[in-house]
Amino acid sequence: MRMTDLTGRVAVVTGGSSGIGYATVELLLEAGADVALCGRDAERLEGAVAQLRQRFPAARLLAQRCDVLDADQVAAFAARVETELGAASILVNNAGQGRVSTFADTSDAAWLEELQLKFFSILRPTRAFLAQLQSREDAAIVCVNSLLAVQPEPHMVATSAARAGVHNLVRSLATEFAPSRVRVNGILIGLVESGQWRRRFDVRPADERDLDWAQWSRNLARKKQIQLGRLGLPEEAARAILFLASPLSSYTTGSHIDVSGGLSRHV
Question: I want to staple 6 with a disulfide (CB 3.0 to 4.6 A). Which of 17, 31, 110, 160 is the partner?
Answer without folding.
Answer: 31
